[in-house]
């Protein structure tokens, strides 16, 4: 197997790992967001915009409680990845410094070349660190999406509450 083939295989494996990690960590949050998205129906009927929500007030309240809870759980995972990366990055920098210092006695190459050789020695650790940073970004984007869905749920709940108050109908929505 050539180096290029090995690098491509490793790259594909890392990509699959990142995607699988993000999907696993965010599965429940994605499911909750999809429930909201699937329940809202917007279409044109006879030239008029018609919308319909198939979620009751109780279901909206449950979603309004569950979405932030899931975001908090995912944020805990993000914090774990970040903590691991901080210490890994410090260790990498210390290793590069040690290796560069050890290579100073060699006659081969200038300072930049010695530093590049030292960097190659910690390539695996840097790759793991970069993988974790990519997972962090992916999970953060899931939280950002969920935050927008949560804001929408809250707006609908507030609208229904105001509507029932003005109509003097009692509870906000049929159960």
Strand content: 5-15%
Could you give the order of the helices and strands? HEEHHH
Return Rg in Å: 26 Å
How is the main sheet built? Answer: 2 strands, antiparallel
Which percent range fits the helix content?
over 70%
Give the number of helices.
Answer: 4
CA-to-CA gap between the ends? 63 Å
- Count of DSSP E strands? 2
Structural class, from secondary structure content?
mainly alpha
> What number is the mean pLDDT?
87
Shape: elongated
Task: List segments where confidence is low: pLDDT < 50 over at least 5 consecutive residues.
Answer: none
Q: Order of strands across the widest beta sheet?
A: 1-2
Task: Please give a structural write-up.
Strands 1-2 form a two-stranded antiparallel sheet. The N and C termini lie far apart (63 Å). The chain is 80% helix and 7% strand. The protein is mainly α and 175 residues long. A hairpin with a 2-residue loop joins strand 1 (40-45) and strand 2 (48-53).
Give me a quick take on this structure.
With about 180 residues, the chain is mostly helical.
Keywords:
single chain, 175 residues, mainly alpha, two-stranded antiparallel ribbon
């Amino acid at each position: 197997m050539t180096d290029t083939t090995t690098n491509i295989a490793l790259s594909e494996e890392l990509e699959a790992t990142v995607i699988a990690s993000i999907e696993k960590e965010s599965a429940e949050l994605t499911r909750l967001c999809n429930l909201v998205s699937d329940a809202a129906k917007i279409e044109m009927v006879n030239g008029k915009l018609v919308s319909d929500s198939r979620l009751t007030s109780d279901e909206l309240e449950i979603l309004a409680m569950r979405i932030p809870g899931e975001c908090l759980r995912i944020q805990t995972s993000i914090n774990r990845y970040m903590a691991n990366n901080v210490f890994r990055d410090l260790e990498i920098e210390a290793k590069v410094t040690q290796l560069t210092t050890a290579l100073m006695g060699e006659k081969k190459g200038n300072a930049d070349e010695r530093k590049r050789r030292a960097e190659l020695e910690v390539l695996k650790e840097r790759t793991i660190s970069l993988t974790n940073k990519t997972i962090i970004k992916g999970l953060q984007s899931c939280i950002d999406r969920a935050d927008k869905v949560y804001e929408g749920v809250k707006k609908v709940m507030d609208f229904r509450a105001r509507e029932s108050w003005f109509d003097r109908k009692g509870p906000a929505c049929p159960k």
